[in-house]
Design goal:
elongated; 3% strand; 2 strands; 5 helices; two-stranded antiparallel sheet; mainly alpha
């Protein structure tokens, strides 16, 4: 397979990969979402970009440049959702709204604190994985003497 064909396929698959990850994040395997699986999907899409284009081109993508910030923001969000109920006198990981209460909806998505937690997990895992991919790719490039 030619390098150019690989690059075309990688470029064509990147946007659908992000859309599938968003769908998994929003609906997950059950109903509330799955931040971890969505982050793995995004990370695999980024890995494909590194394999097809190398560190110089893939490193310019916004997801790569902001990976450490995404990880920190995700950790902060997940910890906030986890421990905020303790400050309100409830057990850890008590989600809002309570069962049976009215739920705010965005289309078919119910805006629960569990969704915020899934987004936090997504940002944390995606930021960490993309940062790790970038670190490994640069290490491999240095070991090869700077050749992509």
């Amino acid at each position: 397979v030619s390098t150019e064909a690989t690059r075309v396929v990688a470029r064509l698959l990147f946007a659908p990969t992000l859309m599938v990850a968003l769908a998994v994040l929003v609906k997950g395997y059950a109903d509330t979402g799955d931040g971890f699986a969505a982050a793995v999907i995004v990370s695999l899409g980024m890995l494909l970009q590194y394999l097809a284009f190398g560190t110089e081109v893939a490193g310019r993508l916004p997801l790569v440049r902001r990976a450490p910030s995404l990880a920190v923001a995700g950790l902060a969000l997940a910890l906030t959702v986890t421990f905020l109920p303790v400050l309100l006198g409830d057990p850890v990981m008590t989600h809002r709204p309570a069962p049976g209460a009215d739920v705010v909806r965005l289309g078919t998505l119910e805006l629960l604190s569990a969704v915020a937690f899934d987004v936090g997990v997504f940002l944390l895992v995606a930021g960490f994985a993309i940062g790790g991919i970038d670190l490994i790719a640069h290490s491999v490039e240095r070991a090869r003497g700077g050749r992509p």
